[in-house]
Write the C-alpha cells for this entry.
Amino acid sequence: MSQQGYVATPPYSQSQPGMGLSSPYYGHYGDPSHGTSAPGIMKPSGPLGATVPGGLLPPGSLPPGPPQTGPNGAHSPQRFPGPPPVSNMAPSYTPGQPPPQSSHPSPGSTWSATQLGSQFSSMQINSYGVAMTPSSQGPSGPPSAASFQGPPRAPQPSILQPGSQTLPPPPTTLNGPGANPMSSPIHGQDGLPGPTPLNAQYKPPPPPGQTLGTGYSPQQANYGPQMAGAQLSYPGGFPGGPAQMAGPPPQHQKKLDPDSIPSPIQVIENDRATRGGQVYTTNTRGQVPPLVTTDCVIQDQGNASPRYIRCTTYCFPCSSDTAKQAQIPLAAVIKPFAAVPSNETPLYLVNHGESGPVRCNRCKAYMCPFMQFIEGGRRYQCGFCNCVNDVPPFYFQHLDHIGRRLDQYEKPELSLGSYEYVATLDYCRKNKPPNPPAFIFMIDVSYSNIKNGLVKLICEELKTVLEKLPKEEQEETSAVRVGFITYNKVLHFFNVKSNLAQAQMMVVTDVSEVFVPLLDGFLVNYQESQSVIHNLLDQIPEMFADSNENETVFAPVIQAGMEALKAAECPGKLFVFHSSLPTAEAPGKLKNRDDKKLINTDKEKILFQPQTNVYESLAKDCVANSCSVTLFLFPSQYVDVASLGLIPLLTGGTLYKYNNFQMHLDSHQFLNDLRNDIEKKIGFDAIMRVRTSTGFRATDFFGGIFMNNTTDVEMAAIDCDKAITVEFKHDDKLSEDSGALIQCAVLYTTIGGQRRLRIHNLGLNCSSQLTDLYKSCETDSLINFFAKSAFKAVLNQPLKVIREILVNQTAHMLACYRKNCASPSAASQLILPDSMKVLPVYMNCLLKNCVLLSRPEISTDERTYQRQLVMTMGVADSQLFFYPQLLPIHTLDVKSTVLPPAVRCSESRLSEEGIFLLANGLNIFLWLGVSSPPELIQGIFNVPSFAHINTDMTLLPEVGSPHSEQLRMIMSIIQEKKPYTMKLVIVKQREQREMTFRQFLVEDKGLYGGSSYVDFLCCVHKEICQLLN
Ligand SMILES: [Zn+2]
C-alpha cells in the first residue's frame, strides 16, 4: 500500500507563516510515469464543441438540444421507471429523455463579506445568526417550508466580526501584547495580570438556569493552564487529568457566546429545509449534492448518485499551484455497493454477450456518458485519455443532428452514472465462471465461551439465520454453501453431508500447518443438509460442556477457513466468533503487550501496529483466495485488536466487538449484528480501479482494502456499508471545459456466483478560481478524508505530529479562503466559507477522538477498534460518528411520527427537566435529567419515579404507552441502515455512568482532553491570523 501523502513529510512549521508555503501534501505533481497523462492523440476540437453531452457541460452552458424532447419523442419525466432487468437477457431499458438542466449551484452569488456584514445586522431571526448569513440564491431555490425561520443554505461565507459576536482579536505578532487569544481566559482564571482586549464586547455567558443543571460547572469555564504552554496552541489537548464533573462555580469570565458560532445543527436543518424531500437529479457536472443528513430521492441522469460517490469538492482547481495554495484535499469517498432506498431505481445490468463491455483501447475505461461519438458514429473519443477508438460493429449506431447516438437513452452505459455489466470469462479467475460463495462459521469453544452460554447462543441463532442466507433477487434459494468449524487450541471440522445420520467431527491437532481433513461434506447446501446441521448445532454446546481448555489459537483458524475455500475453488466469508488473546502455541501466537507507558511517546504508534507480521501475510493470502473474514470479538480483557483486527480490515470483512459480553444485556446487540451481517448485500473477489481524465490521478486509497500495486484495489469482499476514500493529485493542468472525470469500476462475483462489473461515473468541474473551489466543498466528505488519512498515519507517525498537521491544515485552508476569496475586512474577523462553516467543529471532534488523543483512560483495544471502524466508513457514518445526534425526548409530541429536531452536542443544551437521546452509530444513550417529568418516566419505564429506574437494561420495556411506542420508534429510525447495532445505555444525571456519556458531548471540553469547540475556534482563528501575517 502506498504510504505517501498524508504525514509522510513533516508539517509546515510555525516559522514559515504566509500563504506561499510549500505543502507536504502536494509533492507528487507532474509524475511523468503515469500512463494516462502521456501525450497522445489530441482532442479534436470540432465535434466536442458542438455535441458534448449534457454531463460534460460546464456550468452556464445550455443543455444540448431541446430539453424536453428526447430522441424518441418520449415525454415521461421519469427516465428509467421500473426495476432493472437482472437476468442475463438484454435489458429492457426504458427510453426516456433528458430533463431540463436544473439550475446551476448559485452561479451569480454575491460573495461580498461587506455586504454580509450589513445583512447580518438585520437577520437575527434565529439564535444561529452569525453562521447563517442570508442568501438571495440558494443552490436549489428558495426554502419551501414556511415554518423554517432561518435563511436558506447560504452560498456566502460566514463571518464573525467584532461587536456582539466577537472572537478575541488575533495576535499581530507571536509574542506581542494580547497576542494569544487564549490568554485572556487563562489569565482571568489564574488571576494573573494580562491584557484582555475587547472583553467588554463579549457576550456574557448564557444564563445558568437556561443551560445548566445544578452542580455543573459550565464546560467552557474549564480552561486549563496547560493551554498556555501548548506549543501549537491546540488547547486542551493534554490536560493534567480528567475534568471534574462538579467543580467550583466558574469565575465570571467574559465568554464567546456559543450561539454565535456556526452550528452543525443549523447547517443540517438548513439543508433539510431547502433540499429535503426533493428529487435530486445528477444531470449537472460539478453539482454539490444535498448533505448526507438530508433525505431526498436521487435520480441518476448521467453522474453517479451521491450514495455511491461523494467528493471533498465538486470543483477541482485547474492547476496544481492553486491546489497547493488552498491545501484542500481532493478526494472521493466511494461506496460502490451502497444500499439504495426502494423508491430509487436499482442498477441496470448491461449484457453484451461474448463481446463483453466496450472499453477504450488505450486506458481501458468502460463505455460511459463521457465517451464522445464522432464520424457519424463510427468512432468515439475517450473522455478519460482522449484516445479515438473504433466503435465495434455490434455496437454501431447512427448519430442525430447534434451528434448523439440515436440509442443514447436506451442504453444505461450511455446515459447513466451507474450501471453493471455482465463480465465475460476474460474477467474470471482461470477464465472459468466462478463458483457461488460459501460461508464458514467458526466458533471458539474454549471454557469461558461455553461457561457464559455464548456457544449455545450462537448455535441456536445459526439455526434461524441460516434460513436467511442471501440470494440473487430472482432466485428461490440461496446458492451459498455453508461449513462449520469449532476450535480452542485445536480445530474441529464437521462433515455435515446430507446423507449422514449425524455430523462427523474431525480433529486437527497440528495447528502449525493446518490442512483441511475433508472436502466432500464440509461445504454443503443448507437446505439439503438442514437436519444434519441442526443436529450438529444442538450438539456443539454439549460436546464441549466439560472442556476446561482456556487457550485458543487464531491464525490457524483463519488459515483453515481459507484453505477450505481454496480447495472448493470458491470465494467466501468466514464468520469467526472469538473471545481471547490467542496464546496457545501456534503461528500468530500473541502475548499481552499492551503498554500504557508508550502513550504520548513516539512509540505510541506501536500499539496500533500488529504484534507480528503473521497477520498481514495471512490477510494477503486470504485476499488472494477471495476469503473475507468477519470477526465477532467478545473480549473480557486485552485481546490485541491491532493484530486480530487486521484480518477483517484487510479482507473487506467487519469487526464487531462486545466488551465483557453478558448474555442478558448484550445478546440483543450481537444477534442483530449477526443477522444483519449475514443478510447484507455483498460482492466477492472484488478488484476496484479508479480511472480519471487527464491531468490528475488517484494517488492514495484508504479503506478495508489490500493493494499489491499502486492502482488495483483488492477486496476479498465488499459489502454495502464499506467505503473507500481515494485521494487525487494533479499531474498536469485541468481544463475548465472538459472538467475532471472519474470512473470507478469494480469487478466482482455476486452472491449467486455471477461475475460482474459495477461502473460508477462522476464528472466534476474545474476552475482556476479559488472561489469556485471553496464554493463546491463538502465538509462531511472532508472530515471523512481527514479522519481516514490521519488514522492511517497513526501507524507511522507520532500522534502529536498528526494533530498538529490537522490543525495546521484546517487553518491553512481557511486562511487561503480569507486571503483570496473574502472581501477585505478587519483582521480580527474570522471569515469561514459557507461550505466549511462547520469544518472547525467537526475537525475538533476528530482531534478529540480517542484514537488521536493520547490518553491512558481509554483501552488500547478500544482505540484500535475505533480506528479500524473509521477506516471503512462512508460519509454518513463518519459524520454521525464524529458529531453524534442529540435529540430532546421530553418535548416530543406523541402524535408526531418525525424525529424531533436535534440539538447541539453540549452539556449546555441539556436540562435537568429533560430526557435526551444521543447516538453516534456505535452507542445510543438515553440521558435522564434528575427532574425528568414523572409522567414520561412512567410512560417509558413503567415505574413511578426517577429513583425507581433500573439503569441496568439495554432494551427499553414495551410499556404500551404512547411515550414508550414513540421513543422506541425513534430509536429504530435512528438504528435503521446503520452498519452496527447500537447498544442502549441508560444514563441518570449525576451518576457515575454520566462520565461515559459526556465524552460524546463533543462541543464541550473533553473529559480526557481535547478542547471545546469555542476554544478550538479561537485557536484556529489565531493560526489563520498568523498565516495571514
Ligand atoms: Zn481512454
Notes: The first helix runs from residue 45 to 51. Residues 1-156, 161-254 have pLDDT under 50 and may be disordered. Residues 360, 362-363, 365, 382, 384-385, 387 surround zinc ion (CB under 6 Å). The chain has 26 helices and 30 strands.
